[in-house]
């Protein structure tokens, strides 16, 4: 009997000992027709695709037939359906009479190792002269939109792209670069461990090792950027290395694994950009670089806001948009004046929303007194709140100076604006934000107080 058990076939997933023990229970534990049904059920289960081990199949894909330089890839799965992706209707779009939607495919996954949302995969058209899918042509690229477990197919991914030549039955593959992704993440975590211990040099070495495993790993680029930003803030130097690392993380931001990491990266990236802007803004040799820093802060803040409603996203954005407004206020072309109007409107809307979100009052609402008395606190934030009050004071002072007319209605509006300027100016000076423009704002407030003594 023991030789019989030792000769039984085993299943690669559940192991040799488990398979033999199942048969011992059935045979040694006594007869009965019920146990034969159990045996049949077990054998059926063991042979089902659910327990099948994922295999790695290699594909050699060609981009064209003229140059025989195949790209070695790993088979991911097979396309099971293709539809047009859902898309909102834009009444202002110039392409209203054209179907510009991307195609969406559903791929039955044969090997899900290394897959992640945002990853680029390749659609392979099988060479008809080969019995297997060993060789084929790359006919399209898709971006992974989701990875889920379908009750009918098992693991599937949905992907989008411009897939005119794609049809059901074609194969999808990924490059071998993604093989090192998991290894790179483990090495990056090792760097985090060294950082927690205060071992900065070893942390930097680990992050660089992670990038050697996967040169596009955004978490490692962001971690290096954090280290270099802290060094620049301590030394007062221009954040060259921090911006270089953060820029690479920004280019690969879709590959972050957790949204919380994207949020923290956006905050630190915007801080580095503003530090660079503050050093470039008075330097003639910087050219357009200061405005490019501000525009990137605006983009990063928008990405940040899609992840969370935390006020820090908007706090960084309102500061950048105010300085963009100031830049375009000195320009003369029609496009530049339009940009000024756009940033002025956007800055005002952001400030109004922040006042409601942070303190629970609207622009001239009743809860202003509650906040001023200290009963409404500002939420936990990494943003210097005195910077926010400084920007708000400068913005409302600009609106006040631009407001024409001296009619009674205008005087009431100007008096209300002056109260807002005074409130934010006092809060900003208490925090000593170091905004140079605030020094001249004090004299403006004194002049306006004489115009509106009964405000």
Could you describe the 3D structure shown?
With 455 residues, the protein is of the alpha+beta class. Among the domains are: 2-51, no CATH class; 58-85 and 100-180, Thrombin, subunit H; 309-455, no CATH class. The chain has helices at residues 2-6, 16-28, 33-46, 181-196, 200-213, 218-235, 240-251, 259-280, 289-307, 311-329, 334-359, 368-372, 385-402, 408-431, 437-451, and strands at residues 58-62, 71-84, 103-109, 120-126, 135-150, 154-161, 171-175. Strands 1, 2, 3, 4, 5, 6 and 7 form a 7-stranded mixed sheet that branches. The chain starts with a helix and ends with a helix.
- Sum up the overall morphology in one term: elongated
Cα-based radius of gyration, to the nearest Å: 31 Å
Distance between the termini: 102 Å
Which parts are unreliable, with pLDDT below 50 for 5 consecutive residues or more?
1-19, 25-29, 42-53
Structure summary, number of beta strands = 7
Specify the helix fraction band: 40-55%
Q: Which class do the helix and strand fractions yield? A: alpha+beta
Q: How are helices and strands ordered from N to C?
A: HHHEEEEEEEHHHHHHHHHHHH
Task: Determine the number of helices (DSSP H or I, runs of at least 4 residues).
Answer: 15
Major β-sheet annotation? 7 strands, mixed
How much is the average pLDDT? 79
Strand content: 5-15%
């Amino acid at each position: 009997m023991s030789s019989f058990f030792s000769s039984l076939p085993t299943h690669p997933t559940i192991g040799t000992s488990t398979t033999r023990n199942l048969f011992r229970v059935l045979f040694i534990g006594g007869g009965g027709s019920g146990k034969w049904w159990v045996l049949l059920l077990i054998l059926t289960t063991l042979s089902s695709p659910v327990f099948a081990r994922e295999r790695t199949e290699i594909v050699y894909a060609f981009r064209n037939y003229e140059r025989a330089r195949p790209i070695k890839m790993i088979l991911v799965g097979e396309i099971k359906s293709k539809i047009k992706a859902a898309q909102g209707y834009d009444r202002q779009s110039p392409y209203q009479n054209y179907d510009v939607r991307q195609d969406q495919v559903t791929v039955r996954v044969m090997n899900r190792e290394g897959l992640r949302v945002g990853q680029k995969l390749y659609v392979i058209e099988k060479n008809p002269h080969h019995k297997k899918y060993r060789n084929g042509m790359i006919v399209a690229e898709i971006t992974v939109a989701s990875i889920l477990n379908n009750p009918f197919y098992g693991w599937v991914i949905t992907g989008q792209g411009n897939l005119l030549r794609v049809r059901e039955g074609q194969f999808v593959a990924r490059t071998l670069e993604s093989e090192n992704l998991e290894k790179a993440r483990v090495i990056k975590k090792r760097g985090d461990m060294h950082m927690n211990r205060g071992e900065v040099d070893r942390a930097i070495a680990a992050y660089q090792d992670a990038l050697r495993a996967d040169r596009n790993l955004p978490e490692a680029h962001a971690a290096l950027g954090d280290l270099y930003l802290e060094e620049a803030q301590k030394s007062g130097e221009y954040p060259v290395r921090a911006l270089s690392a953060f820029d690479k993380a920004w280019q690969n931001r879709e590959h972050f694994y957790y949204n919380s990491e994207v949020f923290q990266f956006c905050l630190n990236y915007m801080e580095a950009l503003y530090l660079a802007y503050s050093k470039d803004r008075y330097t003639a040799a910087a050219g357009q670089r200061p405005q490019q820093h501000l525009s990137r802060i605006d983009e990063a803040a928008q990405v940040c806001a899609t992840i969370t409603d935390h006020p820090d996203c908007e706090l960084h954005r309102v500061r950048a948009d105010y300085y963009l407004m100031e830049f375009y206020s000195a320009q003369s072309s029609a496009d530049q004046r339009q940009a000024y109007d756009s940033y002025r409107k956007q800055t005002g809307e952001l400030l109004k929303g922040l006042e409601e979100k942070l303190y629970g009052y609207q622009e001239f609402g009743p809860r202003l007194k509650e906040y001023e008395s200290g009963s409404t606190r500002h939420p936990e934030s990494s943003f210097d709140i005195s910077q926010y009050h400084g920007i708000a004071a400068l913005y409302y002072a600009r609106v006040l100076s631009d407001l024409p007319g001296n009619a009674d209605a205008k005087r009431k509006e100007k008096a209300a604006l002056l109260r807002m300027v005074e409130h934010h100016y006092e809060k900003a000076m208490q925090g000593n934000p170091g905004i140079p423009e605030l020094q001249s704002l004090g004299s403006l407030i004194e002049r306006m107080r004489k115009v509106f003594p009964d405000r």
